[in-house]
Amino acid sequence: MIVVVGAPGEEPFGQSFRAWAQRWQQACDQAQAQFEAIGLEPGLGTNDRARLEARLAQEPGDGPEPLWLVLLGHGTFDGTEAKFNLRGPDLSATDLAQWLDRFRRPVVVINASACSAPFLVKLSRPGRVIITATRSGTEQNFARFGQFISTAIMDPQADLDKDGQVSLLEAYLTAAAGVAEFYESEGRIATEHPLLDDNGDGLGTPPTFFRGVRAIKKPREDAAPDGLRAHQMHLIPSPEERRLPAAVRARRDELELALNRLREAKTRMTEPEYYAALETLLLRLAELYETHSAPSAGSQP
Questions:
Q1: How far apart are CA 134 and CA 191, in angstroms?
Q2: Structure pTM?
Q3: By mean pLDDT, which of 8-22, 33-47, 186-200 is the weakest?
C-alpha cells in the first residue's frame, strides 16, 4: 500500500490527513502488508509527484497480489483535467493513468479528495477497483470521505455479510453511509457523493444503488454491475482467507466472477443451458474449496 498525503493548505487539514494516513498504516500493520507514505517526510524537498512516479516505477507490473494506492488531500478541476494537490507539482489524472498503464496485477486506487471523479474515468480498467470521494469534478469542497473509509477498512461493524472480514466494497458502503450521515446531522447540503468502479467501464456506481453488498441498479441499462470485484478485495483477510495461497484465491475469484456473469446472462439463455453452466462452475468451486480448505476451518464454502 502506498498512501499519498497531499499539500494540506491550512494546518487543520494537515492534521486530518495525517490522522487518516495513520489509520491506513494501522490497518496495514494488522494485515501484515507493506506500507509506505509519501508526503509526510520532512526535509525532502517539494516534489512528491516525482517521488510517487519513481515509487510506482519500482513496483512489479504483474503478479497476484494487489497494489493499493490511497490519495488523501485536496483536489482541483479546471473543467478539463482533475488534479490531486501535492507539495510541488500536482498529480493529474492523466499522469497517474500513464504511470499505471503497465500494471497487469490487481490495482486499487482510492482518491479521497474533492474533484476526484474524473480520476475514475481516466483510471478505469479491467482488474482495477477505483473509488472516488465525488461523483463529478465540480464537487470541489473539502471531502470527508477519507476520514470515513480509513476507519471503515478495519471496523468489524463494516463487515456487512458477516464473513469475518471487511471487503473493500463493504468499506466503501460504510464510509459512504458515514459521509451521508455527517451532512444530514449537520444540516448541510452534501457536497460529496462517492463512486465505485470495478468492472472497467468507467461509469461508476453510487452507494445508493446497492442493497446489502449487491448492486440492484446500474448506471446504464447495458452496463455490468459494479461491486463484485471490490467485494473480493480484503486488506485485512480473515484467518480462513489467509490460509489460501494467492494463486488459489485468484482462481477462486475468477470462478466467482464467472458465476456472477452467468447469473447476469440467465435471461438470454435457455434453462438447460443455464443450469448446465451453473453446475460446471459450482463443481469447480466446490473442488477448489475441498482441495485447499484447511481441515480446521470447519466452515462450508
A1: 8
A2: 0.90
A3: 33-47
Q: Please name the residue that has the C-alpha cell 453511509.
A: 177
Q: What is the tens place of the pLDDT at every residue in 176-202? A: 999 999 999 999 999 999 999 999 999
Q: What is the phi-psi region of residue 127: left when phi exceeds 0, alpha when psi lies from -120 to 50, beta otherwise? A: left
Cα distance between residue 214 and residue 211, in whole Å: 6
At 15, phi and psi to the nearest 5? -60, -40
Q: Which pLDDT tens digit goes with each residue over 47-56?
A: 999 999 999 9
- End-to-end Cα distance, the chain: 29
Backbone angles phi, psi at 234, to 5 degrees: -130, 115
Cβ burial of 78 (10 Å; 0-12, 13-18, 19+) is: exposed
CA 22 to chain centre: 18
The candidate with the shortest Cα–Cα distance to 168, out of 259, 237, 114, 233, is: 233
Antiparallel, parallel or unpaired: β 67-72 and 107-111: parallel
